[in-house]
Amino acid sequence: MTTSTSTSARTSTSTGNRGETVHPASPAIDTESVTALLERGRRLATPVLRAAVDRLASPMDTVAAYHFGWIDAAGRPSDGDGGKAVRPALALLSAQAAGQPPEVGVPGAVAVELVHNFSLLHDDLMDGDEQRRHRDTVWKVHGPAQAILVGDALFALANEILLELGTVEAGRATRRLTVATRKLIDGQAQDISYEHRERVTVQECLEMEGNKTGALLACAVSIGAVLGGADDRTADTLERYGYHLGLAFQAVDDLLGIWGDPEATGKQTWSDLRQRKKSLPVVAALAADNPAAERLAGILAADAKKSEDEIADFTEEEFASRAALIEEAGGREWTSQEARRQHATAIAALDEVDMPAPVRAQLVALADFVVVRER
């Protein structure tokens, strides 16, 4: 796969100063509609999610509650940031796409959210991330063992929530969720292995991100429809929308992982560069045919021979210089354009599903939100 680094179609991304907007496109967002969809997802899913977490043995229930932002590290009630809730919102819309009320999608919304948070708990530990949602991560507060155990427990709960419905549709939904989870784990394994490789192709990176992010978003936007009795063709088409939406989502995440404002993202400055991640901007920059790409390749090859402690001792200026080379080589612009391409492909899939026009409009609004977010 070749990578274009032309600057003729420069998007709304900034020139590289931290804290400026990094999103790749500026569709007219119906902010009020999106906020209402996300809030509805939280309102309907959170009570069921809390009840599921209450099933866990102590101290896993407390650790999970901390992770979800319901309590602080001392166990006091908290209004911590529980995340964007895009997946629950998609699951409820999925049920409506099949002609059912949004409540039909609630078990699917909760199951997907449990799997998503299982992956976050494990990813934070594997990546050594100390901050998530502006708070210390679970492994940092409660230790690695609890992060592993609670993550495993959330995955088990996800399947339990679906299977206890006892319907044929629940069995179909569980199959889709387990396949998506396996792909998510595949993606995390690929992501880790790529950190130790000098070169990764753009296609390999897209495959990894399709597994790690696209698979679960694809499941989220089909699972409500399946629970509502939709046929496999409808569910598969909705999954296609979710898969490409996931790739757009991850492309924006990759931009934020290098150029995002820590005040908005809740992560360290240059977080993906600190972890030596082969994210899309890095891979696309290395694939370019220009002097900046050659200089970047030499620097990253030397970095690969350094220990984690040596990387941790880098100054802000050293990370900033690497980010600047990625941008000069074209990696930032290419990733912005890729987010736009994946967004357009996702929207096109919706035309193949017979659904109420307001539901389609809401799915479009959520897709637009994904590509302009700043956290």
Automatic annotation (TrEMBL):
The keyword Cell inner membrane does not apply. It is an enzyme of class 2 (transferase). One of its GO terms (molecular function) is (2E,6E)-farnesyl diphosphate synthase activity. Residues 1-27 are annotated as: Disordered. The keyword Ubl conjugation does not apply. InterPro entries: Isoprenoid_synthase_dom_sf, Polyprenyl_synt, Polyprenyl_synt_CS. Keywords: Magnesium, Metal-binding, Transferase. Its EC number is 2.5.1.10. SUPFAM superfamilies: Terpenoid synthases. Residues 1-15 have a biased composition (Low complexity). It holds the Pfam family polyprenyl_synt. CDD domains: Trans_IPPS_HT. PANTHER family: (2E,6E)-FARNESYL DIPHOSPHATE SYNTHASE, GERANYLGERANYL PYROPHOSPHATE SYNTHASE. Belongs to the FPP/GGPP synthase family. This is (2E,6E)-farnesyl diphosphate synthase.
